[in-house]
Each structure stands twice: as C-alpha cells, then as structure tokens.
Amino acid sequence: RYLLEQDFPGMRIGPEPTTDSFIAVMYGDSEGNIPGNALVVDPKKPFRKLSRFGNAFLNRFMCSQLPNQVLKSISIIDSPGILSGEKQRISRGYDFCQVLQWFAERVDRIILLFDAHKLDISDEFSEAIKSFRGQDDKIRVVLNKADQVDTQQLMRVYGALMWSLGKVIDTPEVLRVYIGSFWAHPLRNTENRRLFEAEAQDLFKDIQSLPQKAAVRKLNDLIKRARLAKV
Q: How far lies 68's CA from each of 26, 47, 64, 74, in Å?
C-alpha cells in the first residue's frame, strides 16, 4: 500500500495476521479481482503452471488489477501472513513452502518484512526462508514500524534481528536490512527521521532498478536452469 499510495482490491491491513491469500497486484485498465481458478487458465498471465498446487491453493490465490503508474513497471505478489504454531501450519491444505519456492524462482526481488515488536522467527517463517535457498541475491529485509521504539531500543531490536537471521540464513555475509516505518501516518519517534528517510530512499532505488535489470535476470535464470538440466 505504501508503494502504490492507494488501496487495492482485496487488501486488508490490520495488527492481526490478515491476508490469507496470495494476491498478485498487477496493472489493469479498471479495478477488479480475478479469482485463482480463472487466473491459471488465462494465457496472458504467467500463472498457468500454478494449477499443479491444487484447488486448496487456487481458492487462496487471486489477482488484483488497478490502473496505477507504479504497476506499469512492476507487479507485486503479496503473500499470506506467516503463522506460528504447528496446528495452524498443517491446516493450510497446500504446500506453502513449495508455492513460495515457485514464486521465488521467478521474481526479481524477495522482501522479508519484520515488525519491530514481533521479531521472533517462527517455525513456518524459518521453513519459508529456507525455501528461498539458491535465491539469496534476491532477498532484502525490511524492519518495519521502527518509529515505535526509541533509539536505544531500536539498536537492541536491530541486533536481535541480525542474531535471529544469522541462525536461519546460513551465510557468513550480512543481509541488507532496511530500517523504516512504511505507512502514511507521521512518525511517532522523530529521533531517527534522517536514518528512516535515507533507508527508504535506498529501498526505493533498489525497487526502481528492477525493471531495467529484468531482461538480464531472465537470462541469468535461463542459464541457471540450463546448467541444472545439463548436470
């Protein structure tokens, strides 16, 4: 919502885990929703291979179309909120990690969102991050709602986040983490305003560069898949 600066059909934002569907937010001449079963038979959309994940997934997949300038150059896949607890994870009815892996292989950028108040990486989130193996160059991490804590707490939160990520992502290199508060309301704590603005600009530059690099990325993925097939 922050990137588009407007609501999109099917959007729900709240403090609880709201989104229960994969929503593909794409450009269209008029606002509207296309449900998953209709979406995977549309030859103009790149989602036909998703039909193998079954009806339980397709009932939880939709495309939101709206005439927005941002969506002329990028499309966004909004994934469901990550659950914690074994009970909820079993009842999804489809292989969540397999679906994430399918999308991860085809997208240009994967953005992991963390909340300054809820830093724990649940079992399902850990499994989800592990399903991105081999796509490490696409991952960016955003620490959101950072204005709700003061500078001292933010320093501790950032340290705790890096500690948690280090245990899940098995690389000696440090992931790029963008710190900010991505919503339309004014900042609650203005001590770190300059930091948040600089981080937001870095993130937007990263996203703006994606359309120019898309062709090279597709070539890169093609070579990667050819090499795997050869092996």
A: 9, 21, 11, 10
CA 144 – CA 199 distance, rounded (Å): 11
Residue-wise pLDDT tens digits, 165-184: 888 887 777 888 898 888 77
Question: What are the residues whose beta carbons fall under 8 Å from the beta carbon of 51, sequence distance 6 or more?
Answer: 40, 41, 58
Interval 143-166: pLDDT, tens:
888 888 888 888 998 898 888 888
- Tokens matching residue 29: 């001449």
- Residue 199: both structure tokens together: 């981080």
The CA distance from 129 to 91, in Å, is 20
Give the pLDDT of residue 19. 64
Question: Tokens 């996203």 map to which residue?
Answer: 207
Measure Cα distances from 190 to 142, 145, 197, 198 in Å: 19, 12, 11, 14
- Sketch out the chain's domains with CATH numbers: 1-82 (3.40.50.300), 109-209 (3.40.50.300)
Reported pTM: 0.82
Phi, psi of 143, deg, nearest 5? -95, 100
DSSP summary character for residue 190: -
- Of 64, 92, 58, 91, the closest CA to residue 78 belongs to 64
Q: How far apart are the first and last CA of the chain?
A: 42
